[in-house]
Every structure is written in C-alpha cells, then in structure tokens.
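Technical note accompanying the year-one report. For the benefit of new consortium partners, we illustrate the data format agreed upon in the data management plan: each record pairs a sequence with a structure-token string. No post-processing was applied to the example shown here.
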Amino acid sequence: MGLDMYACTLREAPATPVDFKAEEVSELHYWRKHPNLHGWMERLYREKGGTDPDFNCVNLQLTAEDLDRLEAAIRNRTLPPTSGFFFGASDGSESDDDLAFVAKAREALAAGLTVFYSSWW
C-alpha cells in the first residue's frame, strides 16, 4: 500500500481540466511515495476547480504553464510539505527525476499530446 503517482498522455484534450475520464492512455512517468509533489498537484487541482475531497483516483490536466510553475517549484525546493496515510516522505533526492518528468511532459505537449496527472493511494 502507498502513494502511486502517474503522469500519462492522451491523444485528445479532455472537455475539462479536472475529473475527466481517460481511456487509451499511455504512461509517461511514475513516482512512488513522493508526497510533496502530490501536494503540489493537489493545490493545482483545487485551483482548476477540482472538488474531490481525497484527491485520489482523479485526473488533472497539465499545461505548459503548469509545467513551468512545477519546474520553478522543484528548482526552488518549494514543493509543499505533504503527509498522508501510507504516503511516505519526500527527501529532496527526487529533484532530478522530477525535472526529467518535466522535460518528457514538455516533449509530449510539443508532439500534440495531452499530459495529465493521477494517483492512487
């Protein structure tokens, strides 16, 4: 048990940036127990109108602007401290992997794909 986090791609943009159904997805990136990144994604989800109280098994579209903000938070080490049942702990060693995700996500967007985040805990 624990926090499993995914970035995936779709060929078409969803009708809404949050809480959309996704079929025929391709996995772009995977994280295991990186709660601070999850906390950052939850804040973005709420900004975009997401209302699921648990922020679990819901989808969040990521735009180029979102990736710019995420990259800045990673580089500035300002991902929000986040905790949860079975979430584990972020320790700062994840930065290189997080930046690799940002690069892959930008490539996917440039190729015309939609990038989104989802998690299961």
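Partners are asked to follow this layout when depositing records. The chain has a mean pLDDT of 96.
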